[in-house]
Amino acid sequence: MSKLGNLGARLYRGEVGYDFVGKRKIWYGISILITITAIVGLAVRGLNMGIEFEGGAVFNTPKTSASVSKAEEAAEKASGHDAIVQKLGDDKLRIQIAGVDIKKSDQIKQDLAEDLQVKAGDIDADLVGPSWGDQIANKAWQGLAIFMVLVVIYLAIAFEWRMALAALIALIHDITITVGVYALVGFEVTPGTVIGLLTILGYSLYDTVVVFDSLKEQSKDITKQTKYTYSELANRSINGTLVRSINTTVVALLPVAGLLFIGGGALGAGMLNDISLSLFVGLAAGAYSSIFIATPLVADFKEREPQMKALKKRVLAKRAAAAAKGESAEAPESFDDGDPEDAADDAAPAVVGPRSQPASRNRGRGRPSGKRR
Known about the structure:
The chain has 373 residues and is α+β, with helices and mostly antiparallel strands. 64% of the residues lie in helices and 7% in strands.
């Protein structure tokens, strides 16, 4: 078994672990700082909305020897607006110009044909109205709202409302960071970006639900024992699924990173950036929030309950008594669903009535069978 597999097994058994829940204030502070940065970037720079949302024209040229910079200069000269030019396969160009109406598009098409030395009839022009972009945005918001409501209802039924609330906060955290990154790097927001944002919501919940399921199983009949507080069980659940979360996140990030850095960067396929950046940032933020945000929030919510407060007092009192006797005051390494007071009591067999000495192994030997007279 590999070292990572050994580590995962030891984390699952509780032999080793990191105190994620105990240091939750640090993670909350980091998340607040990142979220504020994302919001400030969004407020200052705003989102670079594509023509699908603002309206405009898209011109697809045939094979041409013109460079991207030359095509960009020609498009801006012909339209009087900023233009975005992307080089496609087989030396074709895709030119996007926002704020262009139908009447002006024909003249722009003629000017582009002259500057790029291609036939005007070979240039495909597609016009997009801003109303269509508004419809896409509205549908996206509706889909997001419906998804959030369904997630909260499902988690509240499958687990409890505190876990549903924590998962909802983590989702908002992930979406805010992803949108803020788009504002900071200036990538264009297209329908592909919206698809990517809606896709990451499911990935963001995956690790969270795995940890919640482990926590639900371990906290069953938690008030019948005095070994662990709820926060300690939450921390064991995170550690028990930590390697699994890392593995699934890395495996998911690798192909997305290929789309973003190789397809969108090295190969120049800029359209891949629309969806790959949202997926990459969202997956990373989702893995972070499931470990550092969602589960610690659940622990905070649960520790406010009177039953959990009483349990914590009993656990701490038992450890203080054990420390006074010179015994180990640390939390045990295993958790049982029963009501064990200590490890010795768990292992001791049940005995009915007094017993002064063990029974002799020779008793009854040599005695004839049948009734005694």
